[in-house]
Amino acid sequence: MRRGMTLIELVIVIAIVGLIAAIAAPSLNSILGLEQQSAVKEMGQTMMWLQEEAAMRNVAFRLEINLDRNQWKVEQGDPSSLIFATPEEAEEFRDEQKAQMRRFTKRQIESGEVDVAEDPSKFGEIDDPRFETKQTLPEGLQFAFVYTPQYGEDGVEPNVELPDDPEDEKIAHIHIFPDGTAEHTVIRIIETEEPDNGYSLEMDPMGGMVRMTDEILDPRNSMDWIPDEGPDFR
User: Is the full-model pTM beyond 0.90?
Assistant: First the structure.
């Protein structure tokens, strides 16, 4: 004859299950933390690898970061590719393009008969199987901001909500040039549930090193050791 569990036995089972859960929870958090840290390290290592490859292949690279979808990918460009030094230069170029496009009809534009200023920065897919797909941050992490000089002191931040139109998604580009140099870059990646916790990646344009820290880096202070003017030898 089978008998059911007594109340005392049931309480003991519940206590044991609770104890196991309490012991396992920190372990699961540790595993998740290691996965997150590993993903950020991989991004930093990719940035350093691209500097070496750019010099070896004589090409330009860029990281395209979608801050709204927490994704990034590598693109390859012509060695003569240029970038805008400031947000004002980029805005001036876009305004010039719009002004030129207004001079043509829709038919002329669609047929390719137009002669307008082309974007000096042309990038496409990289011919490397390791970067054929977009990389996505692990669950629990998101981009907080991306800074390079071309985006001004505040850099690029994600939208509050994912926009309906993909054209409105916040995209940032980080460029690496054929001589192995790169833009001064600061990327902040935070924990979704604890925004004060996260990781910062900074790429030094002088030495090409990429460092990772859990501190929040202010791009305006990162390079303040560089003098505004060179020495006077007169």
Answer: no
Contact yes or no for 184/205 (Cβ under 8 A): yes
- The SS3 assignment for 184 reads coil
Distances (CA, A) of 168 to 71, 72, 73, 84, 128: 15, 17, 18, 20, 29
Residue 147 identity (one-letter amino acid):
Y
The candidate with the shortest Cα–Cα distance to 118, out of 173, 81, 79, 172, is 81
Distance CA 39, CA 28 (A): 17
Q: What is the pLDDT of residues 119-158, one digit of tens each?
A: 556 777 877 777 767 899 988 899 999 999 888 888 999 9
DSSP 182: B
CA 199, CA 188: separation in Å to the nearest integer?
6
Q: At which residue do the structure tokens 């505040």 appear?
A: 154
CA distance 169 to 190: 19
Alpha helices in 102-198 (DSSP H): 106-111
Distance (Å, rounded) from C-alpha 117 to C-alpha 57?
Answer: 28
CB 63 within 8 A of CB 48: no
Q: Where are the alpha helices (DSSP H) in 58-178?
A: 87-101, 106-111
Considering Cα of 185, then 149, then 173, then 70, what sign does the dihedral take? Answer: positive
- Whether the per-residue pLDDT at 86 is higher than 90: the answer is no
